Amino acid sequence: MRADARQPGLASLLETALPKVVVAPSFAAMLVFIYGFILWTLYISMTKSTFLPTYDFVGLAQYIKLWRIERWWVACRNLLVYGGLFIFFCTVLGLMLAIFLDQKIRIEGALRTIYLYPLALSFVVTGTAWKWLLNPGLGIERLMREMGWSSFTFDWLVTSEMSIYCVVIAAVWQSTGFVMAMFLAGLRGIDDSIIKAAQVDGLDDGVVDAAQSGQKHGHDKAGGLPYRRNDHTVDGHLGGHQPVEGKGRPAHLAHQPLNAQPRVQEPFPGGARHLEG
What we know:
Layout: H1 2-44, H2 61-67, H3 70-101, H4 108-120, H5 123-134, H6 140-146, H7 163-188, H8 192-200, H9 207-217, E1 241-243, E2 255-257, E3 263-264, E4 275-276
Antiparallel strand pairs: 1-2, 3-4
Helix pairs in contact: 3-7, 4-7, 5-7
């Protein structure tokens, strides 16, 4: 009996501890080789280290020297340009492609493969291909001139002010498919019953206008159902009357004097509303 009683406890203990034991080496390696090296790099940046590390602490002297270099500010500007444009175009193009594929078209599988194909390429292959395309002597500029457009110029790759935009073009081309896949997964994750319920309630006829109209008139114009409204509009310029608008209420209660404040009770499960003077 004692052996039978110990066996379930041992099994539950192994079931609880085994995942932790399996994950522990990876967790320890992550602490050492990621966060440990981050802290070590931070400390080295505050020393006199150059090519080889030294441990003579100098504080923020290296950072002050860095901020005085003009190339540092050029790199910061390029980072802002690259990051901003990359996020914007990947988000916009990815969302548009996801909405397009969510229309249940016939060649969805082929198009999805085409959009995701650049993501399967390495950064080296992507960089090399776009380097050839954007090279004035090999790519788009030469092609257009050979086709008869002799004045066409597309030399961003060899222009210092425009070269960062070539990097943006290549990065957006490679990553848009991944963003499209994430948006498409989110769109496909919406239950069809929710969409059908929204269509039954009339939300496909203009949600914003209906919501604004419902807030103005005190009831839900989108679905035609009454809802709770506890705020009242006082019109002091029209004889001190308080309009109480809503649905499911006698007509003689449309306006009540201020000394007879109506109390709006919570709706019953059937949706009826009651006003008490």
